[in-house]
Amino acid sequence: MTAPLPLVFDAPRRGMPPRHLADLDADGRRAAMVELGLPKFRADQIARQYYGRLQADPAAMTDLPAAVRDTIAGALFPPLLTPVRHIACDSGETRKTLWRAGDGTLLESVLMRYPDRATLCISSQAGCGMACPFCATGQGGLNRNLSTAEIVDQVRAAAADLRDGAVPGGAGRLSNIVFMGMGEPLANYKRVVNAVRRIVSPAPDGLGISQRNVVVSTVGLAPAIRKLADEGLSVTLAVSLHTPDDELRDTLVPVNNRWPVAEVLDAARYYADKTGRRISVEYALIRDINDHPWRAEMLGAKLHKALGSRVHVNVIPLNPTPGSKWDASPKPVEREFVRRVEAQGVPCTVRDTRGQEIAAACGQLAAEG
Ligand code: SAH
């Protein structure tokens, strides 16, 4: 018996995929029709199939003549993402999907069903270059950016599976999207913003998911936060702060050396001012590292000063990565932390951690294959 080849041999080419329909905006779609010698009205017809009917296989777009299906299959629907496997837990209510891109790159998304909503956690990059020491993805470094279509198609595929009843719990509707999978969304800025537009625009331009149900989570790339504030979008911004002091944050979120806490909070205030949206602050609580009562107080005070009532803290109990010496805080310490943040006038809740036994919990997406 021969050993399986290491994945790296599986993936000789690691570039962006060829152009896909979901990379294009409405003008781009029409220009593509002209290029292909097709009438412009086909552009919206095809887009309605993809975004409205969630159909990604031109062969099944039966309202198109067969010749058109062949033409667009070659020109606008390159192989994008193939599911390698689905793994479920939490009685089927959490499902992680490992995807293989056209060039062999691996990435993951996680679908979480709740009584009142279905949330998909998507990846914006394969790997991540931010090197946060407590995050599994951060340990492997950045493989490559995902294209707009590779980001959008994670959403389309999950929406189709939910609609078709292909996920335990019966047929449903995808309602929420969080950019909390692999990667730093604002380090892949243009493609992510384009993907957000496709996700929130109504058909035929997009999947029609409500902006208020989309969360873009960032380590705090301050200039990119300001730029995002000026895009005319109103998605929720989540800032992964993890500690209110620069000394510790320099080690927990290394990019803090470039944009320290005060600059991140300034940018967050600008985002709140421009969009009218409340900022969500992420705080992975790590035993004896960032869970001290004085840090809770400093966090609450700094956030209240910067953002007033336009901020909410999400405490995420640390999910230890394999081999990590760090652990989640004991529950009484967590409760005291929450109490002290709230005492400063800042709402604070503890996030439930789905998907732990399938390595689909926060920061566990490393796509080891
Ligand atoms: N790069 C983006 C998205 C990353 S994942 C960002 O940093 O915001 C989304 C959240 O999960 C981030 O707040 C991240 O810090 C957190 N996270 C990563 N690893 C974790 C772990 N092991 N335990 C708990 N939360 C973790």
UniProtKB/TrEMBL annotation:
Cofactor note: Binds 1 [4Fe-4S] cluster. The cluster is coordinated with 3 cysteines and an exchangeable S-adenosyl-L-methionine.
Domain Radical SAM core intervals: 114-357
Pfam families: Radical_SAM
Residues where [4Fe-4S] cluster binds: C128, C132, C135
Cellular localization per UniProt: Cytoplasm
Gene Ontology MF annotations: 4 iron, 4 sulfur cluster binding; metal ion binding; rRNA (adenine(2503)-C2-)-methyltransferase activity; rRNA binding; tRNA (adenine(37)-C2)-methyltransferase activity; tRNA binding
Binding locations of S-adenosyl-L-methionine: G183, E184, S217, S240, L241, H242, N319
Catalytic reaction list: adenosine(2503) in 23S rRNA + 2 reduced [2Fe-2S]-[ferredoxin] + 2 S-adenosyl-L-methionine = 2-methyladenosine(2503) in 23S rRNA + 5'-deoxyadenosine + L-methionine + 2 oxidized [2Fe-2S]-[ferredoxin] + S-adenosyl-L-homocysteine; adenosine(37) in tRNA + 2 reduced [2Fe-2S]-[ferredoxin] + 2 S-adenosyl-L-methionine = 2-methyladenosine(37) in tRNA + 5'-deoxyadenosine + L-methionine + 2 oxidized [2Fe-2S]-[ferredoxin] + S-adenosyl-L-homocysteine
Cofactor entry: [4Fe-4S] cluster
InterPro entries (UniProt xref): Aldolase_TIM, Methyltransferase_A, RNA_MTrfase_RlmN, rRNA_lsu_MTrfase_RlmN/Cfr, rSAM, rSAM_sf
GO process annotations (BP): rRNA base methylation; tRNA methylation
GO CC term, one of those recorded: cytoplasm
Assigned keywords, A-Z: 4Fe-4S, Cytoplasm, Disulfide bond, Iron, Iron-sulfur, Metal-binding, Methyltransferase, rRNA processing, S-adenosyl-L-methionine, Transferase, tRNA processing
Active-site residue numbers: E108, C362
Bilayer-crossing regions: none
Main location: cytoplasm
This enzyme's EC code(s): 2.1.1.192
Family: Belongs to the radical SAM superfamily. RlmN family.
HAMAP family named in the record: RNA_methyltr_RlmN
Protein task: Specifically methylates position 2 of adenine 2503 in 23S rRNA and position 2 of adenine 37 in tRNAs.
Note: Reaction proceeds by a ping-pong mechanism involving intermediate methylation of a conserved cysteine residue.
Protein name listed in UniProt: Probable dual-specificity RNA methyltransferase RlmN
Biological classification of the source: Bacteria, Bacillati, Actinomycetota, Actinomycetes, Mycobacteriales
Gene designation per UniProt: rlmN
